[in-house]
Amino acid sequence: MYYPNLDLKYRHELKHYVNYHQYFTIRQRLRPLMTQDANSNEAGEYLIRSLYFDDINNTALHEKLGGVRDRVKYRIRIYNGEDKIIHFEKKIKMNDYIAKVKESITREMYDEILKGNYEVLNLPHKPLLYEIYHAANNVLLRPQVIVDYVREAYTSKLGNVRITFDKYMKTGLNNHDIFDPHLAMVDAIDHKFFVLEVKFDEYLPDYIKTALQLEGLVRQSNSKYVICRKLGKENSWEDQ
């Protein structure tokens, strides 16, 4: 069992499924109200690929399936398939709030981790990497699944709001190398549906809330990690 850090800044996070018509309508409403993410390409998008980890007991998977409110997930994340920025992240959920801690790693460190050499994380001066190092040795934290999708993101300083549309989610089966140029990917959800995520601090401004009209949308219950783990399931309990 991992325990959340109570000293972190926690934010609200709401997730919904939207179809293409809902996506297009909401996006058109948001564009005059919010700023597009500075990292976006000319199409207003960027690619996110993450390698999720879990321990010998599949704690992250079981806790999500069991509805445990306070839980964490570990992942390595890259953008646009490049190795210029590689983050090892810890995403923390406490009740209905989320927080994220991250630390940069080098491509050389990533390559060693993929080989099973976790000594590169034995860095007491970097608490997150040191925590992951101990988890790798004590509870056998190991790579489990790749999650890949296209993100379209909008931000607002008022309320520190971040709204994202995650599209075309895929996963890599039986391969944990996020830099493999021959990585075989399969669709994780029907491409007719996108995942709308709304993150904010203390409040969501009324004009953004009006543009979103969340009341008519379908809440998403499964995480991207769970969705992709189920596609590569080896045991019947992973369907529960």
What features would you describe in this structure?
The chain is α+β, with helices and mostly antiparallel strands. The protein contains six helices and eleven strands.
Notable traits:
VTC_domain; 240 residues; alpha+beta; Polyphosphate polymerase domain-containing protein; single chain; VTC_sf; eight-stranded antiparallel β-barrel
Largest sheet: 8 strands, antiparallel, barrel
Q: Determine the N-to-C terminus distance.
A: 20 Å
- Spans of 5+ residues with little confidence (pLDDT < 50)? 235-240
Global geometry:
globular
User: Counting H and I runs of at least 4 residues, what is the number of helices?
Assistant: 6
The neighbouring-strand order within the major sheet is: 1-6-5-4-3-7-8-10
Content-based structural category: alpha+beta
Radius of gyration: 18 Å
Order of helices and strands: EHEEHEEEHHEEEEHEH
Mean pLDDT: 90
Number of strands: 11
Q: How much β-strand is present in the residues? A: 35-45%
Helix content: 10-25%
